Backbone:
């Protein structure tokens, strides 16, 4: 049991080579989809001292740098997450990779999920894991941690949760599963433990359904977003309906709340969407 609970995060040369390979493919994809005029080098602009000194684009770049890369989420209203398949032969696969894009298909982050082979095979959707998000500059901007919990717990004492941290290991908040009689129910809490949002699902969430939705509501019952899984259509690389899921949120929502809902999206994917 200690082997399952203790989940050391892989590090060293093998992990660095994996991330290096991911970002090579990541930048090749970005370059192939970029307009040729965008490839022309532009001079680096100085930091804006006055509101009229710099263009909105440069202001956004400065804001992104000062906020550790999470400022990319400020103007986003939809996050589309696609799992990148990794075929490694008969050996155990203890790592998964996800690509996060905006509603305009702009690549935002690459997320690497790391777990142990024993936990992946024995615990399945209830596995403990660590998800690290990287931006285009290969800098880590957030990290999600999921402890080992029971997949089907009726007592309410060992329910699922996901913790969100910044790159500096500062707690952003936690997503907690709450006990409910018929429907899945989750609460999104900030770093102080105060609940800001709730996530509610249907009474019969089934993994094999091609389309599913979880509603995000405020504490007064107002609908503010949704977590979804959709059938993306046939793809030559993979043809699995659980490889494409995402999140719809208001554009003016706080960045920390968007990060917490992104953590909740990955938690719901493991619990209800994932089929392998």
Residues:
């Amino acid at each position: 049991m200690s082997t399952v609970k203790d989940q050391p995060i892989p590090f060293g040369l093998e992990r660095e080579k994996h991330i290096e390979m991911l970002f090579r493919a990541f930048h090749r994809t970005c370059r192939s989809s970029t307009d040729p005029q965008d490839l022309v080098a532009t001079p680096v602009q100085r930091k804006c001292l006055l509101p009229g000194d710099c263009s909105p684009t440069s202001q956004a770049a400065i804001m992104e740098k000062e906020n550790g890369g999470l400022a990319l989420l400020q103007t986003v209203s939809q996050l589309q997450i696609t799992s990148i398949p990794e075929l490694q032969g008969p050996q155990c696969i203890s790592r998964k990779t996800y690509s996060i894009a905006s509603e305009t298909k702009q690549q935002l982050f690459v997320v690497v999920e790391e777990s142990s082979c024993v936990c992946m095979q024995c615990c399945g959707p209830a596995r403990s894991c660590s998800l690290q998000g990287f931006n285009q500059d290969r800098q880590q901007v957030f990290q999600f941690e999921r402890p080992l919990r029971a997949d089907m717990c009726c007592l309410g004492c060992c329910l699922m949760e996901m913790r969100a941290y910044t790159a500096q290991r500062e707690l952003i908040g936690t997503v907690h599963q709450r006990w409910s009689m018929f429907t899945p129910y989750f609460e999104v809490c900030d770093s102080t433990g105060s609940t800001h949002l709730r996530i509610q699902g249907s009474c019969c969430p089934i993994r094999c359904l091609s389309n599913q939705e979880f509603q995000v509501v405020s504490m007064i019952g107002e609908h503010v977003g949704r977590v979804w899984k959709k059938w993306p259509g046939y793809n030559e690389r993979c043809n699995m309906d659980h490889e494409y899921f995402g999140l719809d949120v208001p554009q003016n929502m706080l960045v920390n709340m968007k990060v917490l809902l992104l953590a909740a999206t990955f938690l719901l994917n493991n619990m209800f969407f994932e089929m392998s």
